[in-house]
Structure formats: C-alpha cells, structure tokens
Amino acid sequence: MEIRQTSKNQAKEAVHGRGASDNPPNRFEELHLDYDKENPSPEDPVPTTQIFKDRSQSLITYNDSPDVGFNASINVYRGCEHGCIYCYARPTHEYLGFSAGLDFETKLMVKENAPELLRKELSSKKYQPQVLAMSGVTDCYQPVERHLKLTRRCLEVLAEFQNPVAIITKNHLVTRDIDLLSELAKYSAVAVFISVTTLDSNLARILEPRASTPLHRLQAIEQLSQAGIPTGVMVAPTIPALNDSEIPAILHSAARAGAQQAGFVMLRLPYGVKNLFQDWLKQHFPDRKEKILHRIESIRGGKLNETSFGKRMRGEGIFAEQIAKLFQISCKKAGIMGKDLKLSIDSFRRPNQQLGLF
Asked: If you write DSSP's letter for every residue of 167-234 in order, what string do you get?
C-alpha cells in the first residue's frame, strides 16, 4: 500500500460486481490513498459495502434548476451500491472526503432518522405542499434498502400526510411498497418511473452491476401498472453509440408492460466521472471506445460534459437531434406520451393539526 497520485494512463482491472475499478483522487484532497494493483498484497482490502451514519438535521432539499422536473427532493442515502459507472452523482461523494470511484458505491451514508425528519418538516407551517422527488440523486431502492426500509418508512409518512411523491428507480424492490404506493395513488399523489437503460442483460451487468436486471425492471413496470399506480419509463442515461439504438425496443417493451409515460436524459459526465467512464470503456469496449467518446463530444460542443442549463440534459447538434427524434417517433409508435404525470397537492393534510381541531 502506498500514497501516490494515480496516473490517468495506468491500466486498471475491472472489479467483480462493481462499476468503478478504483478510487481516483478526490479533487478537494492533496493526498490520495491508493493500492498497487500491479503487485497486489494480501493486505489489500476487498471492496465490501460499508454503512456510515449521516447526521443531517434536515431531509428535504430544494433546487431552482430550470431543467430538473422537481423543486424539492428526498435522499435517504448518499452513495449508491448499484454502482452505475455513468452516475452523475458520483462527484457528490467528494464533498464527504471520499472518492467518486469505488468509495461512492461501497461507502454509503445513511440517514437513519429520515422518516422522523420528514414528519417534522411536513408538519411545519412553513412547509408548502408540493411534489417531492425520491432518487433525485441516489437510488432510494438500492440494495441496502431491502433491510433498512428507510424509503418505505418515508413513504408511510408521505401517505399519512397525503403528500405527492415522484419516484425514479432501477430496482424491482419498489414493488415491495405497492401497498403504500396504491394508497397514495388514490389521491393522485404518486408516480413511479423505472429507469431502463438497456434490454441487454450482459451490458446491464457491467454498466449497472448491482441494479435489477432489465427483465425485472420491466416486471416492476407491469406490477405497478396492474396495481393502478401511474408508471413510466426513463431511458436514462442515453449513451450515444452505446445504447441509443435500443430506444425503440425499450419503449416498446415498457409500453407492453404498462408504462404510460416516458422520458430520456442524455449521458452526463461531470468532474471525475469522465475519467471513470473512459476507463470503463477501455476495459469493456476497447474497440468502440473512441467512437463512443467522439459521439459524446459531438453532442457536447467538443467536450465530454456540458453544464449549461437547457443543454446538459439533451445535448445539441445533429446527433442529439437524431436521438430526440428517434425517441419521439418511438414513443408515438409505442403509444406512450411524454414524461408529464400530473400529481395533486389537493389532498395534503397535517394529521396532528386536524386532531387538534377536536
């Protein structure tokens, strides 16, 4: 083990069951702890998942971004074990002193008091009823949720207050909470979008190693839809020259499963995600790496990432226009609409205050 700077050209081996292959330097830290992969030692740790307590004193976060479809969101987890190599949220882990690489998918910060914080904030007279998004940053149904059940407990609070919630996930685990989602659906207070990036299980295994398989995601759409829960599909992210050709098939399959709405978001590669994604391409698609990168640059003004509002979600240029057109035509053929599922705040209530009236 040694402390050194990692060379951008250093060859890296894929880590089984993980998206990233190492921990690149944190852009806020001068020193970086790395492991010599050319001469591995028995002392080198296996990248197992670790859980840490997040002692945040608030839960609802607000944004004023014009190209994000929500103003307020809830994230009970920081970091995500799904390990999606492309995840735009990876750099947020650097604010915690971790790396955007393996740390993001193995060192999870958990807000154990999230349900209590949510109840307190919804009960406040300062809170204005509005749609709350879950998984605005990291997936609220990532594997650790199976036993921690923080998302479920937050949904119990939302159902009690009848506050609308929009969920996006790539995990079949969301079907566990159909009872609560069905209750919210009675008040037009819930919508669930399942992210389907590819129908190729082999690609999904290396692209999103610990997320549900494509088949299980389609099954989740079907189960939610049959339960009367407004359900949509997100082709996100759309990666030029890698999965954009699958858009018609994904939308067709999702529509058959019961998806009513659809949306797509172009690949975003902020900060260190650029290097992680390039390393991943070198490991898994060395013959297509340059084509994919050039195609990304063609929709990002010659760069690998664009942060400008209005451009970062869709890209620009001829290839971006072709992808958008393909999506629109495919939606029409599949019989599904855009991604606007109307939610209502009309039934919002504060239970404690209502009891106080008596």
From this structure: EEES-GGGGGGHHHHHHHHTTT-EEEEEE---S-HHHHHHHSTTSPPHHHHHHHHHHHHHTT--EEEE
